[in-house]
Amino acid sequence: MNEHNANSFDLLQAQQLLNMLMPRPGSAAKEKPVQLGVPNYSNLSASNLVQRVRPRETTDEVVKPMVEEEPEQPLEKFDSWENCIAWCMSSTRAEAAFVVDSQGFVIASRGRIPSQGFEGAGAELICSIEQLERIAPEAGRILCVDMDFDKRRIIGFVASSEETPPFVVGLVAPEPLRNETKHRITQQIISNLPNLD
Amino acid sequence: MANVIAIVSSKGGTGKTTVALNLAVALAEKGDNTLLVDIDPLGAIGLSLARSDTEWTGLAEYIMQKTPVEDTVVKTKLATLSILPRGRLDPLDISLYEEVLHSSKTLQDIIAEVDSKFQYIIIDTPSGLGMITRAALSVSDFVLLPLQAESLSLRSILQTLRVITHTKEVDNPKLQLLGILATMVQLHQDSSFNILKTVWASLNGVLETYIPRADAFALASEKGLPVAFLGGKYPPEALRFEMLATEIKKIVQELGGITGEADERTQRELI
Question: In chain A, fewer beta carbons within 10 Å around the N or the C end?
Fold first, then answer.
């Protein structure tokens, strides 16, 4: 605190945090406690930046608008399925991701790939989505299936457009996603379909 | 059940790996089964022990599902000390490695598998407060914060404390700070002494033990050994780590960690 070793304000802040972290006997503050509040950091996670980089709603301390909706963020551009599923993984903190075409063939995969691969899971996913659409034909096409197994979660995003047959992007063990995030991910994939082989 | 201790600092060069390695050795020499986990993409533990960058399989191979955890754990000549190395990680894959450690349950799964075999698991983290450090904090019971006795380290301590506090509040409520460990202390040098004086006067939670800057560490690094394993007269720096291990065990016990030591003794006769 003497001379210029460290800003005294920073050290008081540090001491406050230490008091919170170490409330054990014998560790009483050596300084008189001062209410300093939250350090004056610029909170990137509360800014638009996080939506551009990692649009996941579970980002720590995201400040949500009280009234007005934030303007739509520009969509990311991917030049390959690998980049697309890498983005999906980082957006959802998934363990692994894969993409299958309408025939159930795996086009790309990334992350912790199980020893048996995703061939079987991909084919079953495509088949199941077709079956599920029969439940409510008038309800339109399935955009996303979110499955909670007792050991793991899997989400399948169905991406299709007028010009292209459907692709399914599967995410293994992602964080729980809100509907708007699922919608954003689906839109992101669909908007990139023309660039993806 | 093991006590999982992450060694964390926002600033590089504070002696995290030296502390992790020598603390693990000191705990093991006290008879506690200890696992030293190297999650630093640099593979600093392996390099400190003069191993080639691709000598040991480890975390990288586990992540790739090529090797089960038990096959990646390296047993040392000290029966109570094992090492889980980083593995043969391609430096070009570091960002993916960081992503997987942060976004998956890899560390959690590893600890769950080895938890019952060790009393202490020491996690050596990379410098900075990025994804790997956050992943380590989210699975640890305790965190030890090495503070190099120089100005930049002191000025950046608030950053580390903020991340620890946040992790405790959001991700891992069981996380507890063991304390701040002053490292590379040179009491004969005014600037170093002033930093230590400032730390002692301003912050609580500073451990009694501090680690001096000493040639023995450079020699140990050159030989690829923990400082206690150097030949010749037993170095005072190794004694420092014995003191540190004792102090940490005491704090762990005070904080409700699992020590397995009831300290019950049978009655003895003196005469």
Answer: C
